[in-house]
Design goal:
There is one protein chain. The chain has 2 domains: 191 residues, 3-Layer(aba) Sandwich (Rossmann fold), CATH 3.40.50; 175 residues, Glycogen Phosphorylase B (Rossmann fold), CATH 3.40.50.2000. 40% of the residues lie in helices and 17% in strands. The chain is elongated, with a radius of gyration of 22 Å. It has a 7-stranded parallel β-sheet, sandwiched between helices. It is of the alpha/beta class and 386 residues long.
Length: 386
């Protein structure tokens, strides 16, 4: 690995994206940039295609943003600008996400050719073997030796990548792995006044027990299971309600299902909302009965709001939620288990409070944006030390 040219200055971190769009990973990366210690890391953003919605936010936060205007794979001039940029600015570490193909392909190779000391692929998904997709394309796995590290969100991502995508199977597929967890700004806990305001707005009574699901309304998220669980629990728990936050291709079908099951008066569909943290003040527990998952930010946000969680034991969720401590994990697609665990929490105020308190403490300890930044700094330090 090439040596750093400025060993006593902050390490220069270059994030390469196609465009800085408003997505969960991009927002986390922006927040991580804001919380990196400027005495240790000096970050910048390179956008191959366009700046995107978040580019101005990066600039406003004091970070250099370079846009090449690349229009496709045939745009060799713009592609060559990436190599020229690396040669001119001399970053110490290049970071690329797995979910944008051009940065994933070009970033590591051009960083290596330009003499950049280290480059890292950030893997923001897992559990994709259930849908026949991959986090890392085969050609990336076969050329991992050109990469100096993988940044993972949770420890179990390593097992998934090794078992299902072949990472580490042969010497040329082996690279160091680092856990840099998703993090959020931990908010203040909701006040009773905020709870009352949100409930009045959504039409919930003070004594209702409200379960919230924040997710796109798609087949994999399990909204249908939650509605069926609500219908089964309704006779014994007349105050149980469900709040559905999000939009998606199955929104109308799920609304029709609530009517069919006779629980439409117990469900509020908000559609897409930009004030999710505020809405969480009106809920009593978070639910995510997905068929498969990565590392959902929505669950971390619910834990930070002091909500106990009932979720499927898939993807990174077992790394986030300790079963029996911060909530319950159930097998994916198991309606009986979902009904049983929801019923336990809906019918036990003290248990909800205990799990919710533990969930809040876990979010503060492991999933703050400050934790994300410190883990990134340690990763960069280790890469450059080796």
């Amino acid at each position: 690995m090439p040596r750093r040219s400025r060993p006593h200055e902050p390490a220069r971190l270059c994030l390469v994206l196609n465009a800085a769009l408003v997505g969960g990973a991009e927002v986390v990366l922006l927040e991580m940039f804001r919380h990196l210690d400027p005495d240790k890391v000096r970050p910048e953003l390179v956008c191959l295609r366009e700046g995107g919605t978040l580019a101005d936010d990066f600039r406003a936060s004091g970070f250099d943003v370079t846009v090449f205007g690349r229009y496709g794979w045939k745009d060799l001039r713009a592609t060559a600008k990436l190599w020229t940029h690396f040669r001119r600015t001399k970053p110490d570490v290049v970071l690329v996400p797995h979910f944008q193909r051009a940065p994933l392909v070009l970033g590591p190779w051009f960083a290596k050719l330009a003499g950049v000391p280290a480059n890292v692929i950030a893997v923001h998904n897992m559990d994709l073997h259930h849908v026949g997709d991959r986090a890392l394309p085969p050609y990336v796995v076969e050329t991992l030796k050109v990469t100096d590290g993988l940044a993972l969100l949770v420890p179990s991502q390593s097992a998934y990548l090794h078992e299902h995508e072949g990472v580490g199977r042969y010497p040329w597929r082996r690279v160091p792995e680092y856990v840099v967890p998703n993090g959020i700004r931990i908010p203040e806990l909701p006040t009773p006044a905020q709870r009352a305001e949100v409930r009045a707005e959504l039409g919930f009574a003070e004594d209702d027990v409200v379960a919230v699901i924040v997710a796109r309304v798609t087949p994999i998220k399990g909204h249908d299971l939650l509605l069926r669980a609500l219908a089964r629990l309704a006779p014994d728990h007349p105050r149980f309600r469900v709040l559905v936050v999000g939009e998606g291709p199955l929104a109308q079908e799920r609304t029709a299902l609530a009517e069919e099951l006779g629980v439409a008066d117990r469900v509020v569909f908000t559609g897409l909302r930009r004030d999710v943290p505020r809405l969480l003040a009106g809920a009593d527990l978070g639910v995510l009965p997905s068929k498969h998952e990565g590392v959902p930010m929505s669950v971390i946000e619910q834990m930070a709001a002091g909500l106990p969680i009932v979720a499927s034991a898939v993807g990174g969720l077992p790394d986030i939620v300790a079963d029996g401590a911060e909530g319950h994990l159930v097998p994916a697609g198991d309606l009986d288990a979902l009904v049983r665990r929801l019923g336990e929490l809906v019918g036990d105020d003290e248990l909800r409070r205990a799990f919710g308190k533990a969930a809040r403490m876990r979010a503060e300890r492991d999933f703050s944006i400050e934790t994300t930044a410190r883990c990134c700094e340690r990763m960069i330090s280790d890469l450059l030390a080796h």
